[in-house]
Amino acid sequence: MAVELPAQITVFERGWLSSNNILLTGGRETVLVDTGYCTQANQTRALVQDALAGRTLDRIVNTHLHSDHCGGNAHLQEVYPSVRIGIAQSQLDNVQSWREEALTYRATGQQCPRFVAHDALSPGDVIEMGDLAWSVVAGAGHDPHEFLLFEPVHRILISADALWQHGYGVVFPELEGEDGFADVATTLDRIEALAPRTVIPGHGAVFLDVEEALARARRRLAQQREDPRSHAWHALKVLLKFKLLEQRRVERASLLEWASTMPYARALGMMHFVDEPLPALMERALGSLLKSGAARQQEEWIEDGC
Ligand SMILES: [Zn+2]
């Protein structure tokens, strides 16, 4: 069943390489929340241009700065030179100086073209988008700088990667040996307290069964806390799968070579799989993707399986 949203909100449901994009019109300004991955920036622009039907794009807001959520910023900034980009206050310096290390693009081996940000957003701020007032809500866990956006009249939550209908994103601080699971729990509690009626997630369909989604997310979190190695294993496969989504088709040897030099893979190997050399570990992760159908092999080539 399609979920009904106020007419001024359009959700472009994209998939896993590009996050969903949420276009808010109707107000004085037009706003796009999250812009997808850079290799699909043309498609993002076409979707936005088509829906705006001649209006300009006034603002972009990024829930967080993972490459699949802000990879389209640079291209949209070229097309709409006056667009203002709003990001988490805590990331403003990193963006203005373009510190790829701090922005994690180096660690994940992903790409994100440089863009310029204008507005700093912090939890507690209220911003107008589509003639509605949205609260900026802290959403750490998946990413320490992530925020959610909540509209209290229709009780709509833009949840980014903090809550999906079936789970939530990889807990990135854990890949750096920092505690992220506690923040995931706090954010899930915060979402429960907001009691949203409709959730627009960063990936996947808009959903209404919020209680069930929270219960599923908490079960997953309990299991990951019990067995952090299972989370690390999941993260390795997600990073590998993302590369496949990006490349579509890649030589097996070069994929494994890339995987064995990715900083997050090295860190996870050292923390959780000390007895297994990294190339063997990544070979095993690829084997698992092939077995589940998430990847396909044709002679020496690996293809995305979805
Ligand atoms: Zn993310």
Automatic annotation (TrEMBL):
<keyword id="KW-0378">Hydrolase</keyword>
<protein>
    <submittedName>
        <fullName>Glyoxylase-like metal-dependent hydrolase (Beta-lactamase superfamily II)</fullName>
    </submittedName>
</protein>
<dbReference type="Pfam" id="PF00753">
    <property type="entry name" value="Lactamase_B"/>
</dbReference>
<feature type="domain" description="Metallo-beta-lactamase">
    <location>
        <begin position="18"/>
        <end position="203"/>
    </location>
</feature>
<dbReference type="InterPro" id="IPR036866">
    <property type="entry name" value="RibonucZ/Hydroxyglut_hydro"/>
</dbReference>
<dbReference type="GO" id="GO:0016787">
    <property type="term" value="F:hydrolase activity"/>
</dbReference>
<dbReference type="InterPro" id="IPR050855">
    <property type="entry name" value="NDM-1-like"/>
</dbReference>
<dbReference type="InterPro" id="IPR001279">
    <property type="entry name" value="Metallo-B-lactamas"/>
</dbReference>
